[in-house]
Design goal:
With 288 residues, the chain is mainly α. It is built from 9 helices and 3 strands; from the N terminus they run H-E-E-H-E-H-H-H-H-H-H-H.
Length: 288
């Protein structure tokens, strides 16, 4: 709880710190105790809490959807079947509206992206102190329960989508066609000198930046929105340590922000899914 910390700054830093496992400076492996120690562990350190919650929520998603599929009936559907069918119809409508080529992988991918990102975002609706407090009682020093507030998770998702974009760009257009798409548009000329010596470097620069910006924008948009939302919940939680009047006001604020945040977590999952579909559609499209 906020009253257990020496200052508001310590409380905020604690709640924004991941449970990081990696190699210490002395060569031993273990949990980092503080942001500086986690940073010193370097690239191969693992945020255990992000991995735990993201994988756990993915398994939960698969479990419920598989259970709904196994119990599906043409008669009177159960509430779970109705819910799953509604989500699948929503995803199918989104794919049909944004993806014109034929690819049986896109709809399942869109479904996975939307539901998985939504579940990870929805962890932000849990009170910020509950799970970290329980973890602290078990001797776990840090615990961040919202995987999408970790840039490692959002960049992992975005780079996976980017890898599919590159794969289908080369598969559908060939390596030469993909390179030509980057090198010979938007500026074009029939003059060989202008085409190869002037416009090609400019086009490669512009299209290269546009290509690389896709995974970066995907990752940072999701991370930034969820990180900001988590920060607001943490700041509101500080009010509960300032007396009953502030606690009452903080409770009202927390409820209002949670209701508004439901829109944010859903919208961010929808945007991530929609951009994934659009980027794959662009990867399948040929430019002549």
């Amino acid at each position: 709880m906020a009253t257990e910390y020496a200052s508001s700054g310590e409380y905020i830093k604690h709640h924004l710190q991941n449970l990081t496992y990696g190699q210490h400076a002395d060569g031993t492996w273990g949990i980092a105790h503080g942001a500086a120690e986690a940073k010193a562990m370097g690239f191969w350190a693992i945020n255990v809490d992000s991995m735990l919650f993201s994988i756990g929520l993915g398994v939960l998603f698969l479990f419920f959807f598989r259970m709904a599929a196994k119990k599906a009936t043409v008669g009177v559907p159960s509430g779970l079947q109705n819910f799953v069918e509604w989500i699948i119809e929503f995803i199918d409508h989104s794919v049909r509206g944004s993806f014109s080529p034929k690819n049986a992988m896109v709809a399942p991918l869109a479904l996975t992206v939307f539901v998985w990102v939504f579940l990870m975002n929805a962890m932000d609706l849990l009170p910020v102190d509950w799970l970290p407090y329980v973890a602290g009682m078990a001797g776990v020093p840090y615990l961040k329960v919202v995987p999408t507030t970790d840039p490692n998770v959002t960049f992992g998702l975005a780079l996976s989508v980017f890898a599919l974009v590159l794969f289908y760009s080369v598969k559908m257009k060939g390596s030469g066609g993909f390179f030509a798409e980057l090198a010979f548009q938007p500026f074009q000329s029939k003059n060989p000198i202008l085409k190869y010596l002037v416009f090609m470097p400019i086009n490669l620069l512009l299209e290269g930046v546009s290509l690389i910006a896709k995974p970066i924008s995907l990752a940072l948009r999701l991370f930034g929105n969820m990180y900001a939302g988590e920060m607001i919940f943490i700041l509101i939680a500080l009010m509960f340590g300032g007396g009953w009047l502030l606690a009452l006001f903080g409770g009202a604020l927390q409820w209002a922000w949670a209701v508004f945040h439901i829109l944010i977590i859903t919208l961010q999952a929808f945007i991530f899914m929609t951009l994934t579909i659009v980027y794959l559609d662009m990867a399948h499209a040929e430019h002549h």
